[in-house]
């Protein structure tokens, strides 16, 4: 079984993997958009890339939220482990057998000397945790799990002066655990049974009814924090990406957004006409998110793009490029090409305008030198 820190680390790694997959797929689509000959197709693909980048940003938030959850679960669980360790230490060191002691105030057996020595033991109270908490360092020390401040729990003083684990009914109320019906530690794992103090195991059966005890509260706290961590579900990244594409393709907002962008770049037609056009392109590229999406999606991300590493413009399937650096280079390649095309078109337009401005003016009729011209144009 994985420890809480290991579970937390696994969750974080999976979530980080999902974020990376979102980012890389967005880069692949940005490059694929650069290869598209049709403006509508290019805008649909670029819009998908933008949405995946937003999804990656959302996953980044999930990663950040995992950190405090993992710390809380780890610290709470470690406090339980530490409490159990301390209690077992008390059992092994306090019961000498010379006085028939069962950690009772009625026998002068060797018991823990003072509750003050347990003042930092997390079995006494629920823990508080902040980002600067030293709970983890203190509990998981170089010598192992320990929270006891004293190395030796034995004491040879009189029983009534000691901090006892079990006290007889009607005894001093300042003792740790008093009457025999009360669950003593860990919400019922150990309890007093019978009129004479004796140890019995109960295997957490009374944790709900004994939830008011310090041990039970601590275990419930640890269990709740751990369950919150385990509830963070992270699926297969590739499947998650495909599901996201399916969700986006089925949303009418995608077609509306593409239509607006087409309008902005000067595409002719009304908003309704452009939306219809966008829907057809989405259907062609992604099958409207229907059952045929898998094959359409695979074909889309298998589009050949510049591989981002060759001096020459060599291409390979976008899906086969797995290094972020190469994907970024590929996107830059198409952005630079687009910029070159724009500058070239801009230059051609400027030449045309300059040529038009340099044409000789048409002479006006009225002067003697223009007599023949006026006759021919009359």
UniProtKB/TrEMBL annotation:
Domain of life: Eukaryota
Gene3D superfamilies: Variant Surface Glycoprotein, subunit A domain 1, Variant Surface Glycoprotein, subunit A, domain 2
GO biological process, one term: symbiont-mediated evasion of host immune response
Subcellular location field: Cell membrane
Keywords of the record: Cell membrane, Glycoprotein, GPI-anchor, Lipoprotein, Membrane
GO cellular component assignments: plasma membrane; side of membrane
Domain Trypanosome variant surface glycoprotein A-type N-terminal intervals: 4-335
Keyword Glycoprotein set for record: yes
Keyword Membrane appears in the UniProt entry: yes
Broad class of the protein's primary localization: membrane
Membrane topology: Lipid-anchor; GPI-anchor
Name listed for the protein in its UniProt record: Variant surface glycoprotein 1125.2691
Biological source species: Trypanosoma brucei
